[in-house]
Structure formats: C-alpha cells, structure tokens
Design a protein that fits this description.
The complex is a heterodimer of chains A (about 675) and B (about 280). Chain A has about 675 residues and is an alpha/beta fold. Chain A is built from 26 helices and 22 strands.
C-alpha cells in the first residue's frame, strides 16, 4: 500500500485579538496509506478539525506541508471531498440536485448520460431513492448526512474527509450509518480521514486511530493500530479481544489529557516551609491494599507531622497513569511497583529515559496468581497441571493479565511460568490490564488468569470466579512489592523534602504493620477515595482467616509486609535482580554500567537519614540471598552469568545506558 | 341518490359562505370596525369646525372630487388628466428608478459583500449618503440633470438604492461558511458559484432590501413631484390642488397614494413568496 497523503511537520498558529499568537498544532507528522481509514480523536479544541481542514486545503498550515500523492496541497479540491459535520447541503436544491451540482461541476468532461447514471447510482447507494426529489428541509438528520456522503462519494475522491460526520445524529441512526459507511468504504476501497470524538466509532471504523493531545501546541500523542479484521460488524466487533483494550487505551488517553489540562491550570510553584523545599506535594497511588502506607500517612497525619502540610493524593487507575504523571512532572512522588524506577530509568517506556530513584520499599508480598475457575473444574491444581493443560490445548490462546511490565507481578508471573517450562511470550499471551479491572475481565472471559496484588486475588476467590494457584509463599517469600519513586531531578532539587517524605511513609509503614490497627486501616482502605471495595476483601494479616480457593478456601497466604527491620531499606541486590529480569524478557537492555545505575537509583542514604531521624537505629540490610522457589540462587556479583544460565528467555541486549548530562551533572554535584 | 346530491349541492354554497364567515370573521371584523370608527370621528371633527380639513363625506359631496372619483381615466390633455393617468405616470417613474436601483444595488452589493477591502473603503460613503433625505436630492438632481423627468428618476434611484445595496452586501456576507466550503471543495467556477450558491443563499436578504426600497421609492416620488412643477404625476397633482385650494382633491390623492403603496409592498412580498425557497424564510 503506497502512501496517499503525507503530513509533514505541520504547525498552525492563529492570531489572537491582543496581537499574540495561539499555536494550535505543532510538529504533526502523519501518513495515510491507500485504502486506509484513519480517525483523529481528541478533546474539543485540540485542533483535530483544523488538521482535517489542512488536509482538505480549506486551511493552510503556517509551517510544514501536506502532500497528496506527492503533490503539495495548496487549495481545496474534489479529490479530497469533505463530508461536513452539519451536512452542508444547499437547502434550495433537492437531494438529486445537490448531488448533481457536485457531479456536474467536477466531472464536466464526462458525457451527460454517464453523469446522470453516476448520480442515480449514488442515490441508490445510500438508499435515498424515495427521497430523491425532496428538499433537505424535508429530510431527517440521518438522511441529510447520507446525501452528503453520497455527494462526496459520487466524486470518486482519492481521500474522503469526514468531520464528525455522525456527531449530530441519534444513536440508532448513527449505528446504521456507520455500518453503511463501512460497507461502502470496503466495497470501493476508499481511503478516509475522519474526525470524531466518539471512542466506539473510532474503534469500529478505523484501521488506525490518531490521538491528539490538548492544545495549545497539540501534537500526536499516540497512534493505535486497530487489528480487528474486516469486514466488521458493529455487534461482533464488541466481542473481539482487542476491542476493550483499544477502547480503554483511548479513554485512558482522553482522561489523561483532561487531567493534564486541569493540572496545567492549577500549576503552583513550590511552597517552602519548615526548612523543607516543597510542602505541597501531589502523590500518586493505585487502589490496592498495598497503598495502605500512603493512605494511612494522609489519614493519620504522618505527612503533616513531618512538615508536608499540603499533600494531595492522586488516585490513578493504572500504573501507566503513574508513569505518565512522573514523566510529565505533574506528580511529585508515587507508589510504584518495585521494578518501575529501573524500568523508567532504562527507558522502558520507549521514550527518553527518565531517571527515577527510590529511597523506600513500602511493602513486600501480598500478591498471587489467580486462574479462571474453569481450570479448577478441569482439575488444574498446580503449576505442573497448568503446564500440561496448556500443552493439551495448544490450539487456543490463553491470555493472562498483569498490571505493568515493570511490576513484580509481571516478572514473578513470567519467572513462575518459565520455571514450569511455559514460555511466557510464546505459550501464553500476557496482557497489561489495570489492577481494578482484573476481576471484571476474568468474569467477562477476556482473560484466563492474572497476577496481581491484593485485594483482587481474594476477591476472585470469594466471588467464585477464579482460584489462587500460587502465592508469594510459593514463588518468592518476601519479594519487594511497592516502592516510593521520585524523579532524580526532583530528589536533587528537594533533598530535605525527600527525606521528610520517606520519614512520613516509613512511620506509616510501621503503623500498618501493627496488628492493633488492622481494622482501622481496612476501614480507611475500603473508602471511596482509596480502594473503594467491600472491607471483607481487604485483609492485612492474620493468615488463619484469609484463604483462597473455590470450594473450600484453604490456602495459606503471604500477607503484606509493611514494616520490619529489613523490609524497608532499598536493596541494590533486589534492584539488580529486577534488572536481570527486565533484560531477560526484553523489556529493557541490561546496562553495561549497571553499577552506576544501581548507585543512582537506590537512595540508601535518604533512607538511612530518615530512619536515623525517626530513631529507628536497628534498620538492617536484608542479607539473605535472593533464592526463588526453583532453588536458583542469584549471585549479585555476576548478574550476566546468571542471566545467561536462565533457560527460557528472550534475546537480551547489553548496552551502555547513558542518562542525560543534565541529571548526571546534578548527581555529581550532589555527590 | 340524485336527490341527495342535489340537496347537497343546493346547500353547499350558503354552507360555504357561512363557514368562510365563521372562519374569517375574527380577521375581518376588527379592522372594519377600526376603519369605520376612524372615518366617523374624522367626519364629526370636520363637521364640528375644529379643523378646516373636510370630512370623508366631502369626497362624494364635492363636485370636483366626485368627477375624479367616478372618471379616473379621463384625459383632457396637458396636466388635466384622471387620477389613473396621474398615478400611472408616477408609477412609471418609480419603475424606472427602482429597476435601476435594484440593478445597481444588487450588483454593487455583491461586489461589496464579497470583497471586505472594498466594503471598508465604501461603507462610510454609503452610510453617509443613506442619511440624505430624498427631498435634499431634488435640487442636486435638477442642477445635475437639467430636466424634470431624469431628475425625478434619479431621486427615486438614489433613495431606494441604499437598502437594496446594504441588504445584498449583508446577505452575501452571511452566506454560511459551509456553503462556501462546498463551493471551494468542488472548485466551482465564478459563474457557477454566483448562480448556485451566492444568489440563492443571499436571496432572502436581497428581498428584504427590495421590499424596504419599494416603500421608500414610492415615498420619494411624491416628494420629488411636488417640487418639480409642470409634470403629470400624483405628487404634482396634490401640489396643484393645494395651490388652488381643492382640499378634498388632496384627500382623494392621498387615498390613492396609500393604496398604491400598499399594493406595491404586497406585490414584492408575493414575488418573494414565489421565488425564495421555503427553507430559507
């Protein structure tokens, strides 16, 4: 498929009344292939219609260029026919005459009978034969839009441009028209660019969905490929496994844009107080039982006690929100899966590496692997059973959910599968799903199991939709769960704030570990602004009463470990192990300069200072070597040999990871 | 069978009349009562001697007016003609001046409406000239054109051209962007654009201008003719009657003028109804 339209580095500015300039779009690059259906989606005012108009030639870019088949677009033309949002039919002409005006104006050279046949053909195509002699004022909105589509298609455009074509229609009409448009586009191999704000419409119609960030200076935030096979039917598309992940991807993006806009609006400067550089912090968390230290620090006033008087907690539904928040600098600090600081530092996000450091491990354990109840009914009780079952059913794809590539859930799940000769990249399909969505997806049958933190394993078991096949006890008892993560530049800019934050959270961790506080903490967590779930699903300790199984819930559980002498100190060895696992599965390269990276990520000094100031003088290193259930001992002196000796792995790469000079310079300065 | 049809047809006519009356009575009765009381009060006032204006009955009682009323078509040569001819002469002048105004007003209006620069340059002049009263144009027209007839037509023209011009320009400016975008995408030629987009779209505005203009034109002709002595026309007829103190003749002429003005307005409204598509009103 050749490139039909190419948009190169477009910029569009509008003059403002006060003499200034509004930069609507900046740095837009886009290619549309022949026969491709591309959607532009974004919030209103993000410049998506402007972009469409520039492709149409109705508007010209301030900078950059649009080409159609290599020819520069300078003016509008019928080869890029537009279907306007408000139909734009001429009210003094009948349906037939509206189409005829276009056909006669554009195809002057064609003989009259041919033109007439073309007009009639397109009236029939959109099923408007009975209304051919009526005026637009006598038609419903849906019929008008059909006329507009017929008028556009009759010109045989190289590219069909649709500007929110179904925006003004009722749901029923919209659905019908979408199917008609899809059919027509497929039959005639039409290339199209559509502006829409309807997520479902975009997924249904498009081959690719281009998402624009909010203005000013909107750019392409992300491009999604829709891999749902054609021909598509509205009712069937919904059942395709990709549908909901695409949909939630777009909705996540749009929500994120909305949030960024809001945060931009209230962007405040750092408020310094009590010898701290910044007391107004935005701290991100994901609703899980493991967010207890953050919730407790807020509710029980530990933040305020250590001078952080203006902390607001930002509830993210997925880890991606945390990544974007930290990278986009609108979160000061966040609860993170243990692997995330490394993953972001090593550029796992695909974009530029964002050095993130950790000065506190907040939780350990509290995770499990849950499989669909179906497996239980077929006799699957252990990993060996699961492996056999998978071998017997090679014809089917089994999808397992995990929360983020950098989370221990992903790494432990993969380690567990690989230890039982299941290749996590070939024998099963791993999918990233926000924690809170796991149970629903399992119920809906879009996934067959998952590895996630509590309360979602317990909940699946209590509701009888799944069963826990393995817990931390069977994989790695005492593995790091969630850590506190901040950007390296943030830590360098606010060193005392960082220490105060670690102090507040460390004290909260100690509070969480006290059995006397259990009920209170469970009540806090069950609230709407935290995990927002039934208090029965939230269990912190007491292994005697919390068990997971379908018929007779009998399984010993490794509960969250929030505090102990050796639990909270950031461990270089653990981060190194995570580094090997991230490399093992191809998430990030293994850095040749791993010593330097570890040194920068693990803020042991911050932790030690915080602990000392809290009077916790007996905090120790965890000196037990890392040894998982399969008996392999991790030698932190020689990670590359360890990595080479692992049987199932991807082709990992070893590379020098250079972090930008900016932060390096500041590190040197701090050192 | 036959009887029933007969009986039905025989009762149909009165039934229809009764039905028509029942339907239309609320529309006909109030204005009729209004007009009648107006005439009665007028007659009473003139009979009481409060005013020198004769009452409406004088139209019939006065000999000269009765002749004019009964024989509108007489023509004794010169200026001594029936009211029909007087009115017709005025109407012809209006038709000429108004047609010229319509032609010039619409053409210039389109140019001004499509071209913001020209609009900016000319708009102050238009707004200024628009404010000059028809009568003030008369001496200028007489000086410039030397003759009564062309001067009268010029006055009509200059009075009625502004509403047409300004409304047309506004109508052109108000063409929805959507229609213009359609034209641009279809790459319509200038002629195609004017015929298929511009005129149909601006038509309601143009007609509003035409309707205001016809009223102004009719007002202007009376004023112009009063000043331009020695021509056939309803305006000069009034002036002549005043000079000779035939007050009831003036009244009769005023009734003619009012009636003709009303008819002209209705005629344009009817034309508008015929031409402008229903969706655009």
């Amino acid at each position: 498929m050749g490139v039909l339209v190419s948009v190169e580095n477009i910029e569009k500015t509008f003059p403002l009344v006060d003499g200034g300039q509004y930069i609507a779009l900046k740095g837009i690059d886009l290619e549309i292939k022949k026969g491709e259906f591309v959607s532009l989606i974004g919030h209103s005012g993000c410049g998506k219609s402007t972009l469409l108009n520039m492709v149409a030639g109705l508007d010209l870019p301030t900078n950059g260029l649009v080409t159609l088949e290599g020819q520069r677009v300078k003016e509008p033309g019928p080869d890029r026919m537009v279907v306007f949002q408000n139909y734009s039919l001429l009210p003094w002409r009948t349906v037939r005459d509206n189409i005829a005006l276009a056909v006669n104006a554009v195809m002057k050279d064609a003989p009259a009978p041919d033109r007439k046949a073309l007009i009639e053909e397109h009236i029939d195509m959109v099923g408007l034969r009975p209304a051919a002699n009526r005026y637009p004022g006598q038609l419903s909105g849906g019929m008008k839009q059909r006329v507009a589509i017929a008028r556009a298609l009759a010109l045989r455009p190289k590219l069909l441009l649709l500007d929110e074509p179904f925006g003004a229609l009722d749901a029923l009409t919209r659905g019908n028209l979408q199917e008609q448009l899809m059919r027509i586009c497929e039959e005639n191999e039409i290339s199209a660019l559509m502006v829409t704000h309807d997520v479902d419409e975009a997924v249904l119609l498009s081959d690719r969905i281009v998402m624009l960030t909010n203005g000013p200076e909107s750019k392409i935030g992300q491009i999604l490929d829709v891999d749902i096979p054609r021909p598509r039917k509205r009712m069937e598309v919904v059942e395709h496994p990709s549908y909901y992940s695409l949909r939630s991807e777009i909705i996540y993006f749009l929500n994120q844009q909305k949030r960024i806009k809001k945060l931009r609006g209230k962007k405040t400067t750092a408020i310094a107080r009590h010898g701290l550089e910044k007391v107004n912090l935005e701290i991100g968390f994901v609703p899980l039982t493991a967010c207890a230290p953050i919730a407790v620090a807020q509710e029980k006033g530990f933040f305020a006690k250590h001078g952080l008087e203006e902390v607001s907690l930002v509830r993210e539904t997925s880890w991606r929100g945390i990544v974007d928040g930290i990278a986009g600098k609108y979160l000061d600090a966040a609860q993170m899966p243990a692997g995330m600081p490394l993953w972001m530092t090593l550029g796992g996000d695909g974009a530029k590496p964002v050095p993130v450091v950790s000065g506190l491990t907040m939780t350990r354990n509290g995770n499990g692997i849950t499989l669909d109840r179906r497996f239980y009914d077929q006799g699957v009780r252990s990993a060996e059973d699961f492996q056999k079952y998978l071998q017997q059913t090679r014809d089917r794809t089994h999808t397992l959910g995990m929360v983020h590539p950098s989370s221990l859930h992903n790494l432990l799940l993969r380690y567990w599968l690989a230890a039982y000769q299941i290749d996590p990249d070939r024998d099963v399909n791993l999918q990233t799903i926000p924690p809170a969505q796991m149970v629903v997806d399992l119920q809906g049958g879009t996934i067959d199991g998952y590895c996630v933190g509590e309360p979602w394993n317990l909940r699946a078991a209590i509701e009888g939709v799944g069963f826990t096949i393995a817990t931390d006890l069977e994989i790695w008892d005492g593995h790091p769960g969630k850590v506190l993560g901040v950007r390296e530049d943030w830590a360098n800019a606010y060193p005392n704030t960082h220490i105060a934050l670690v102090k507040a959270l460390l004290e909260a961790c100690r509070y969480c570990a006290d059995e006397n506080n259990e009920l209170e903490i469970r009540q806090i967590l069950a609230q709407r602004q935290y995990v927002s779930t039934n208090i029965d699903y939230i269990q912190l300790g007491n292994p005697n009463q919390a068990f997971c199984d379908v018929e007779q819930p009998m399984r010993e559980y490794a509960h969250h470990l929030f505090f102990s002498q050796s639990a909270n100190r950031p461990s270089r060895t653990e981060h190194l192990w995570i580094m090997t696992q991230l490399a093992r599965w191809g998430h990030t390269p293994f850095p040749r300069n791993w010593m330097e990276i570890l040194e920068r990520i693990c803020k042991v000094g911050v932790f030690s200072t915080a602990a000392r100031e809290l009077g916790l003088l007996d905090m120790k290193y965890n000196r037990i070597p890392i040894k998982l259930f399969d008996g392999t001992v991790f030698d932190p002196e020689d990670p590359i040999t360890y990595l080479n000796e692992l049987a199932i792995k991807q082709d990992f790469s070893i590379a020098e990871v250079v972090l930008d000079d900016d932060s390096r310079a500041s590190v040197n300065l701090a050192a | 069978m036959t009887t029933s049809i007969k009986s039905r047809s025989s009762t149909a006519a009165p039934n229809f009349l009764i039905q028509f009356w029942q339907k239309q009575a609320p529309n006909i009765l109030p204005p009729a009562i209004g007009i009648l009381s107006f005439l009665v009060i007028w007659q009473l006032i003139s009979m009481s001697g409060l005013s020198r204006i004769p009452g409406p009955l004088s139209l019939w009682t006065d000999d000269r007016t009765r002749t004019l009323l009964l024989y509108p078509f007489y023509d004794r040569g010169g200026l001594d003609k029936g009211l029909f001819w007087q009115t017709l002469a005025s109407l012809i002048r209006v038709a000429q001046g108004y047609s010229l105004a319509a032609f010039v007003g619409i053409s210039v209006g389109v140019i001004v409406g499509t071209n913001p620069l020209i609009n900016k340059a000319l708009d102050p002049i238009f707004q200024f000239l628009r404010m000059v009263a028809p009568l003030a144009w008369v001496p200028i027209a007489l000086v410039a054109l030397q003759q009564n007839q062309p001067a009268a037509i010029f006055v009509i023209f200059i009075t009625s051209v502004w509403p047409i011009l300004i409304n047309t320009a506004e109508g052109v400016r108000q063409i929805p962007d959507d229609y213009n975008n359609v034209a641009k995408v279809l790459q319509l030629s200038r002629k195609e654009y004017y015929l298929n987009i511009l005129f149909p779209s601006a038509l309601p505005y143009i007609f509003t201008g035409l309707r205001i203009a016809i009223g102004l034109a009719w007002l202007a002709i009376i004023a112009a003719e009063i000043v331009m002595s020695g021509i056939v026309g309803i305006g000069f007829f009034i002036w002549d009657a005043y000079q000779q103190n035939y007050i009831s003749e003036i009244l009769l002429a005023v009734i003619y003028i009012g009636a003709v003005g009303l008819l002209l307005d209705r005629a344009i409204a009817y034309l508008q109804h015929l031409i402008v598509p229903a969706e655009q009103k």
